[in-house]
Amino acid sequence: MSELLTLIAAGLEVGSLYALMALGLVLIYRTQSIVNFAHGELLMAGAFVGYVAFQPMSWPFPVALVLAVLSSTLLGVAVERVVIRPLVNHPHATLAMATVGVSVAVRGAARLPFGSDILTFPPIISAAPVFIGSLVISAQTVLTIVLAVSISVAVFLLIWKTRLGREIRATQQNYLGAKVVGINTGKIYSSSWAVASAIGGAAGVLAAPLTLLYPDMGATFLLKGFAAAVLGGFGNPLGAIVGGIAIGILEKLVGAYFSTYLIEISPYVIIIVVVFVRPQGLFGRGQIVRV
Amino acid sequence: MQALRRLSGLASIGLVLCVGGSAAWSAEPGIAPDKIKIGMFGPLTGPVSLWGYPINNGAIAVYNHVNATGGIYGRKIEVVDEDDACDPAKAVAAVKKLIVREDVFAIHGGTCSATVMAAKDDIIEAKMPYVVMAATLDKISSPVNKYIYTTTMPGSGDGSVMARFVASMPQVKTIAIVKHSDEWADTKADAFSAALDKKIKVVATEQIDRKVTDAVSQAVRIKQLNPDVVIAFTYPAETAVLLRDARKYGLTVPFVATTSVMDLADLSQRAGGVDVVKQVYAASFLASPPGSSASAKWDEIYKASFPNDKLQTLSFFGMSGALLVVDALRRAGPDLTREKFIQALETTKDLDAGPAYCKISITPENHQGCTQGTVWSFVDGKVVPVGATWIEPKQ
């Protein structure tokens, strides 16, 4: 039983990061119908900026976190203004390919200062894990879950309780209608990218002590985030959160109770099963077409 | 007039034979009165150049040392170093350039197994004597080919060294294996299983993928089975993740790992400190780590050529191959030909492999010159060779 709880705790830790990735993907998808294949690189950028601040510079973790979030936000806004905005009226496939291009370029740029070697981000809290029987919980796990939940709540409050959030939702629901009522949709696009990128940067600096740092690290999280978004219902923020946590826990349980050979393929299996069984995901609505 | 024509015809034939004969005499490729041209290739650009430079430089340092001490029968070794970026297509191009344009006498190169496999056919077709630099895939040198030799411990050797060490560890009855799912890991794991003492039971074989975010499931599963030792056929980054999570989840048994993590100081940095890796025993094909008193001679030879380079285990990887080339060139004699060189390579016996653990022995039936290794571990905060079999630590 305590092994099960240990696995669930570990699944919650990694799942909360997948949830943040999925949330960022969903925000951009809802605003501009773009699947942002460069979202993993926003996570990677945040992780590396956090690393530089926390390790060589030895600044406190909160400063590293803020710098990571700011840098990813700036990067995301720059991508939206320079790459996405000029292509906004092009087919979705073009926009998706543009984000693939951004992904490759950002990874390449990261290799210039950091090379391709793998860096290690030390635990934010160096306290030893707590053992309760066979149940193991580390302070790092608790901190990651608490921060990820706090960030998710803050994003929900922003979307549902602020004027900017209402404008984002209005633009998501009806682009032309939003323009007609005077919403600056360009600003909304940038804001959506800024919020999604900030979440990505935060996820990066939280993921850094859990995993290893290298320029391609975003790809793994992108895949898991994508699976989470599909499971929750692509376009539904709550679904993204639930999907991320579900995938995190599921992969730990599958690995421990079935086979470690199945861990990495489980997200692909989830995507395929959801597409066949419930294409709209757990929280998504089926598409209704007026005829 | 007819006699004159016949005479001039005979003269022409004589001239052709003379010139041709003389060209044939002096046309042993890559040989001049004052130099021997050796081709080299390896990853000098791209992500793997991090390994490529120190490995190739170790071999170049040996050749420079030989040149500085008089060369070989008055000839200096001239190295032509080509980049393959660890890319099979580029390796083929680099090898073709060495063979056709640079006209080298022999090739000593290849750090990535995939690139060597890609270039192998061209090397054989050109009848080019070739000594592997650092690639470890068994298939490169086995089955035997007349032109291909290696002093790098092949993957199967790695597995055998690990199995021998595990069998000598006291009280080891059960082991768990963690491995990647690729040919690199499979070769080592298969050799390990074949050489493992049959009294030792394998209680689990777990997979860990490349670039994993964590190894929680593997650590929890193995902890439940409570093996005496964990065997890791994993690359350095994934080994670090595995060790970190093993410690986090209370899996405190010793780990025996491959030569890929023999740079234990580097592994400790990746995993989060010496404490995390103090129970790791890594197979090694080097006798001692750089910077130790036993390796001082080779440290100096490397530093003499590359004073600004960081001395690391990689700096020694190419040296044993260079020593084999030099020894064979000497034994082939002053009238050097490829045939004589190959004959010398094939009769190498108990040659000192420099910083490598083995003695190099090659026969016409076996071109893998080094299959012996030892084991390194942290003792009193320092990486030291602890022997090919278990020696009870001093209290």
Automatic annotation (TrEMBL), chain A:
Known Pfam families for this protein?
BPD_transp_2 (PF02653)
**GO cellular component labels:** plasma membrane
The record describes its membrane topology as: Multi-pass membrane protein
Q: Where in the cell is it found?
A: Cell membrane
Predominantly, its location class is membrane
Q: Which residues cross the membrane?
A: 6-27, 34-53, 59-79, 130-160, 193-214, 226-250, 257-277
Q: Name one GO biological process term.
A: amino acid transport
Query: Recorded GO terms, molecular function?
Result: transmembrane transporter activity
Q: Which InterPro entries match?
A: ABC_transp_permease, BCAA_transport_permease
Highest taxon in the source lineage: Bacteria
Per UniProt, which keywords does this protein have? Amino-acid transport, Cell membrane, Membrane, Transmembrane, Transmembrane helix, Transport
- Which PANTHER family does the UniProt entry name for this protein? AMINO ACID ABC TRANSPORTER PERMEASE PROTEIN (PTHR11795:SF445), BRANCHED-CHAIN AMINO ACID TRANSPORT SYSTEM PERMEASE PROTEIN LIVH (PTHR11795)
The record's comment on protein family reads:
Belongs to the binding-protein-dependent transport system permease family. LivHM subfamily.
- This one is known as Branched-chain amino acid ABC transporter permease
Task: Give the species this sequence originates from.
Answer: Bradyrhizobium niftali
